[in-house]
UniProtKB/TrEMBL annotation:
<protein>
    <recommendedName>
        <fullName>3-deoxy-manno-octulosonate cytidylyltransferase</fullName>
    </recommendedName>
</protein>
<dbReference type="GO" id="GO:0005829">
    <property type="term" value="C:cytosol"/>
</dbReference>
<dbReference type="Pfam" id="PF02348">
    <property type="entry name" value="CTP_transf_3"/>
</dbReference>
<keyword id="KW-0548">Nucleotidyltransferase</keyword>
<dbReference type="InterPro" id="IPR003329">
    <property type="entry name" value="Cytidylyl_trans"/>
</dbReference>
<dbReference type="GO" id="GO:0008690">
    <property type="term" value="F:3-deoxy-manno-octulosonate cytidylyltransferase activity"/>
</dbReference>
<dbReference type="InterPro" id="IPR004528">
    <property type="entry name" value="KdsB"/>
</dbReference>
<keyword id="KW-0808">Transferase</keyword>
<dbReference type="InterPro" id="IPR029044">
    <property type="entry name" value="Nucleotide-diphossugar_trans"/>
</dbReference>
Length: 181
């Protein structure tokens, strides 16, 4: 177990790595609120980080459902043309001037899985919290605000995060349907 002083999952991973006292090139963090992440997604983010030496972090996104567009519990992501993260937000991004969800736009939903280069993971807790990180309460923003690169892969995944208590029943039902319980 990690200490209560850890402010987020990335800091918990850093502390766990230190406690293990072993040498790893990459650490994977699968957030507990994403119980149905497929093994292929885990492999994909690790391979993406290994293939991108200028990135210190990798993660995955999938298509955002229109009904989730305005849900602050569903973190959205925008990426550049080379597959690097530009920004993460609890709000809809990009947000067009009409103020409405564009049903034709391919909005991206961030999945609760990350892989880290261990050299970066060791210094992450020493980086000061950043304004955007604190405002959005998203640890990925501290990485971006400090000028580090984050590789993002797009996957075809029916996202079923557990963000509110009502989501637990949905996940349990899906797990029974898939014989995973």
């Amino acid at each position: 177990m990690t200490s209560e002083s850890c402010r987020n999952g990335t800091e918990r991973c850093s502390e766990a790595l230190e406690k293990l006292g072993k040498n790893y090139d990459i650490v994977v963090n699968i957030q507990g609120d994403e119980p149905l992440i497929e093994p292929e997604i885990i492999d994909g983010i690790v391979k993406a980080l290994q293939a991108t030496p200028d990135a210190v972090f990798s993660t995955a996104v999938t298509s955002l459902k229109p009904e989730d567009a305005l849900d602050p519990n569903r973190v959205k992501c925008v990426v550049d043309n080379r597959g690097y993260a530009i920004y993460f937000s609890r709000g809809l991004i990009p947000f067009n001037k009409s103020g409405k969800v564009n049903q034709q736009f391919p909005y991206l939903l961030h999945l609760g899985i990350q892989s880290y280069d261990t050299k970066f993971l060791k210094i992450y807790p020493d980086l000061q919290p950043t304004p955007l990180q604190l405002e959005e309460d998203l640890e990925q923003l501290k990485v971006l605000e400090n000028g580090y690169k984050m590789k993002v892969i797009k996957v075809n995944h029916e996202a079923h995060g557990v963000d509110i208590p009502e989501d637990v029943q949905k996940i349990e039902s899906l797990m029974r349907e898939r014989n995973l319980s």
